[in-house]
Design goal:
The protein contains 9 helices and 13 strands. The protein is an alpha/beta fold. A hairpin with a 2-residue loop joins strand 7 and strand 8.
């Protein structure tokens, strides 16, 4: 959820305005940045085919993607606002998927609780231990926020904002990654993290990042997924990555994947999206590559924070394919002998 964007579609001309949200000290968005060299930067991430043992075909069930996405964006969950019965049902659903697939609680339970504006919120945190004695104390974090805003402006008598793209899609992707990764060995340990109170200013992810930092977690990479239910327009990659120039994550991820899966979107840098999703608190706390992928490219979806952001608008085959295509890169990050993903100097 790029929660500072409002966009208006009029005769296919898009006008963008920024509104600030700063509950965890997020810096207000500045003037548009210089995007010269964008084409060159994209060309630099041309994929390198690999013959790694992790390059086997990944099969994600489209029917299971559809089932999770439809439930998480259903009327029953009432827009998944933090502190409501609806988001509690979502948390229980996530816990059920973790339990069924042998993903363990990282803490005493799956819940990482915090208070925000007098309301109790819960991150849901699952854990898969690494298999390599020398690498299992290093962690990847895979994350997405599972909350939404609850209600939005009335349209045709409807005020319920079900948040299908924002961010039931990212939540569904994390659940499918958990299912797949639970069935294979990974050398490093992995945390599967779903955040509440993102819509209130990245509160849940900030709480978890601080807690894990205090526990001296050896965090290698944080990979966040945000609004991925609709394909991008006229791009030669599947999703863009925020903070593209800050690390070599995009370059290495495409090399690991054997395809151009992620790329550079000028607007992501121009609008400082790196600071606007749940990757950012982990970057602030740990100073490691912590970045978000998204397919919301400012021309392909009209229903941000809108009552029509519903399951029926989502491209489930695309989402399924995207999950399949990002999985090899994630597995390679979990299994590389060295920490090859690094911040750029």
């Amino acid at each position: 959820m790029w929660d500072f964007f409002i966009f208006i579609h009029m005769r296919k001309i898009y006008i963008y305005a920024l509104a600030a949200i700063s509950s965890i000290g997020v810096v207000g968005c500045g003037q548009p940045g210089n995007t010269k060299g964008a084409v060159r930067e994209v060309e630099e991430i041309a994929p390198v085919k690999t013959n790694s043992e992790e390059s086997d075909e990944v099969n994600i069930s489209e029917s299971e993607v559809s089932e999770s996405l439809e439930y998480l964006s259903s009327e029953e969950l009432q827009g998944r606002k933090t502190g409501t019965d609806g988001i509690e049902k979502a948390a229980q659903y996530i816990e059920g998927v973790f339990t069924e697939n042998g993903i363990q609680p990282y803490f005493e339970t799956y819940r990482d609780s915090f208070e925000v504006n007098g309301t109790i919120g819960y991150n849901v945190v699952g854990f898969k231990e690494g298999s390599d004695p020398s690498l299992k104390d290093q962690f990847l974090i895979l994350g997405a926020h599972y909350d939404h805003v609850g209600t939005a402006k009335y349209v045709d008598g409807d005020s319920l904002a079900n948040g299908a793209n924002d961010n039931a899609t990212g939540t569904t992707a994390i659940l499918e990654l958990a299912k797949y990764i639970s069935s294979i060995d990974t050398k490093r340990s992995i945390l599967f993290t779903l955040y509440s109170a993102e819509e209130m200013g990245l509160v849940g992810s900030a709480h978890l990042a601080q807690r894990l930092k205090e526990e001296n977690l050896d965090l290698y990479v944080m990979f966040n997924i945000e609004m991925v239910g609709i394909p991008m327009n006229d791009k030669d990659y599947l999703a863009y990555i925020t903070g593209f120039e800050l690390s070599n994550l995009a370059v290495k991820f495409n090399e690991y994947s054997g395809d151009k899966v992620v790329g550079f979107l000028p607007q992501a840098k121009e609008y400082q999206l790196f600071k606007r999703s749940d990757n950012y608190p982990f970057y602030k706390e740990f100073g490691i590559p912590a970045q978000t992928i998204s397919t919301f490219d400012f021309t392909n979806y009209d229903y941000y924070h809108h009552v029509k952001d519903e399951f029926e608008e989502m491209d489930v085959p695309f989402l399924t394919q995207l999950i399949e295509d990002i999985t090899p890169g994630i597995v390679r990050m979990a299994n590389s002998e060295l920490k090859e993903i690094k911040m750029n100097q």
